[in-house]
Input
Amino acid sequence: MRKLLLLAFALLPVLAFAQGFQVNLEGQKQIGMGHTGTGVVQDGASVFFNPGAVVMLPGNYIQAGISPLVFKSVFNPNGTSAQYHTTNKVATPFSVYAAVGPKSSWWKLGLAVYTPFGGLTDWGHDWAGRYSLESLNLKAFYFQPTLSVKLANNLSIGAGFVYNRSTVDLTQAIPISNQNGQDGQAEIKGSGNGYGWNAGIYYKPSEMFTVGLSYRSKINTTIKKGDAIFTVPASLQSSFPQPNTFSSSLPLPATASIGFGIYPNKKLMLAFDVNYVNWSVYKQLAFNYATNTAQLQDTYSQRNYKNAVSLRAGAQYKANNKFDIRAGGGYASTAVRDGYVTPEAPDANRIFLTTGLGYHATRHIDIDFSFEYEHLMSRTQTNTQSQLSGTFKTDVYIPGISLAYHW
Output
């Protein structure tokens, strides 16, 4: 019992880091084009994709978007025909951008609020992995002020400060039963913050080609005095002291991106992005509890993640003065090594397909729609710590809409 309980708390850091919770939903135009945006200029979402490109926007932008996310995963334990499914809950990643400055000036200011990490997963109380996870509600909010400066008519740079505020609420069963045969339960609740920066360069050597580089730094998110809540039989309450708190530091990795834009004619735009994510900084995590007992000790958990790459491509076609049609897709490699896959984020190499439609409602108002489908490759694993063994199959469905006002 003690081993399983300590293991349960050690699993919490996975929530912030697994590729499955790096939602990458920071702009509807960009989603529709396969998440490309580093090397092209489209709207206020450039504050996120490439701060260096913001000053190249033809006007000022205020916009907001939301991308409801449905995460569907099924688990088949090894040696059985049983299948356990996540319930149909909807997470709501969003983004808000402002990019303003004097028209045709050498500078422009940007502000972004977005949710690059998040998840809403519920496996229920009776599935085979309930001692690893029952439910999860994760939200990460990033606030990013940005300055973009034009060095020449075809060259610009930009940089931004990032403040991160995250919350998490996780429940899981404890392998001890009350007089009615019900499992005990642990709930982990906490919030934390961290600081980082990003920067970008945008270059337009010709009317038919553009290129961009961007970098987002690692952010250490520190959780202090998170709540650890236990529901156990009265005879064991002294082993699970209440109230109790925990602290931890979670490293969110740096990301380097390069992107290209190609313009065969005035109606067609092609875009390509490559992202390199330094997941290898996530080697281990420590949890320090304010009150320890023989059954509840501080935990130190190995993760040994590896760096990951995503390849993205997309296109936009201007059908007429009112409508833009978009499509794209790509491939992302997993950062989770064999033996470390968990039900919080049953990660695997994945492919994704996207589509989108832009509607120019008026001279100053754009409405953009997007849809994304992600398919994670089937992955059969035995977790080295929990010994949960079986096959995960996961698909993700993400519609989205945004409204932009520009002048």
In short: Confidence is low (pLDDT under 50) at residues 1-18. Residues 2-406 form a domain with the Porin fold (CATH 2.40.160.60). The chain has four helices and 22 strands. The longest strand covers residues 183-206.
